[in-house]
Predict the 3D structure of the following.
Amino acid sequence: MTQTDDHPATRMRAAERRELVLDAAMQVFGDYGYVGSTTAQVARAAGVSQPYVVRMFGTKEQLFLDVITRALERLLTSFRQAVADTASAEPLTQRLGSAYVNQLRDRGLLLSLMHAFVLGKDPVIGPAGRGGFMQVYRFLRDEAGFGAAEAQGFLAEGMLINTMIGLRMTDEFDGDPEVRELLECAFPTKIDLVRSLAQ
């Protein structure tokens, strides 16, 4: 059986194959953005054929929209778990911040969202990105109980984190003391995790 077989090594149900392709797509879109990615790259990363990806999702655009929907669901699930963890001694803002940074373990999740957020002019992806951003804001306001200014500050920190990850600032950690200072300030308890995931 070849790497690009439509049925990877063990036979999977359609839903499992779909998840496999979405995992691969999230990594590819996270690494190269929507414009810079192709369904052929996604197929190679998933170990399936490119026509199989197209049959499953129709277009690259629809695949990206499905990745964004899934990324938002995972992010909000992790936030809800942080809110529910009332036994923790950590303040809620810290628990939510940790939950956000921990999404870096899910390669491509935060950067796929970031790529959607910068495509505001696109007639299809733009509304999806705005809708997703506002989902997070409404969660912070309605479920986490943040005031408007607190929610705005949390989102601003999240966008700074995304920017630094997208820029691969960790590549300069050892050689530039100001980069090190900025990263240690942004990730006071998670810098080792962030550096290891950036390798």
In short: The mean pLDDT is 93.
